[in-house]
Predict the 3D structure of the following.
Amino acid sequence: MTHTLLSPMDMHVHLRDEAMLKCVAPLSAQSFSAAIVMPNLVPPITTIEALKAYHGRILEAMGEMIFEPLMTLFFKSDYTRAFLEEASLYIKALKLYPSGITTNSEGGVASMDIETLRPVLEVMSDLGLILCVHGETNGFVMDREKEFCSIYESLASAFPRLKIVMEHITTKESVALLDKYENLYATITLHHLLITLDDVAGGMLKPHLFCKPIAKRYEDREALLQVSLKAHPKVMFGSDSAPHPVHKKECCGCAAGVFTAPIALQALTELFHKHHMLANLQAFVSNNAQTIYGYKPPFKEISLVKIPYDVPHSYGDVIPMFAGEQLAWSLK
Ligand code: DOR
Ligand code: ZN
């Protein structure tokens, strides 16, 4: 049995830099035709020079593979119109992080006060740039995303022409917002479709499943699954594949991030097939994103075959989700 996907895209990925970039970028390019690349490097991507240089390093790491990295800028509330006009030639979106909320986000916004954000968000609306948001407060870890929903609502109402992507949503409350505001969209990861907090911390602690936002309750996972399986037109696949070297995961003070880039399409195909929804996978992994971003990715046919795939124990010094386990589908 074979299932073919046309130009699948990953609308949220961390490709990192240097040796890690060289290790993980080809793994994304093996499965995807394009991806939205996160800007949370050290230091974050906040200048046009840094943006262009990083884009160049990604292309170099890809070699001859067909893959378009779609660049993003790290959101700062003091960018000028002239700067954003020039940046808009190189980027699809800006990524907003509340300061300190996750890996390398210390330079993010100190406050989500609308008036502070207004000048940049007005210009973004004018230029048609998309706002990608890591939507968590610094409240109790299980409530952070739910508490952020009122901020999503204020942003969506205050900037009706701005497309806002709620990144890596994990709760039923975020799912509910999709039908309430025309300009709210979402990415959903593979891991949040598969795990709950029980898998992370219900038994022995699983550092390779620890991520931000943390996996939530069964009813949240169910809401994410339903909206993904039906390929709701406002949801897109975004892996949030976030590689960290093994010594940063298996240690005291585990870094947040699940590395899924090389196994994402195989596991998604297995999941959609299991639910008899394979016909909707194309929209979830490409067509919806094409419409939302107004973007046509390079043509690429990716075929999956129902032959078991033994997931490697590691790729370089990164441990993937399902390391050492078997998935039902392989890349052809
Ligand atoms: O788990 C995560 N890892 N969540 C994020 O928001 C950032 C990411 C990373 O960069 O490691
Ligand atoms: Zn991320």
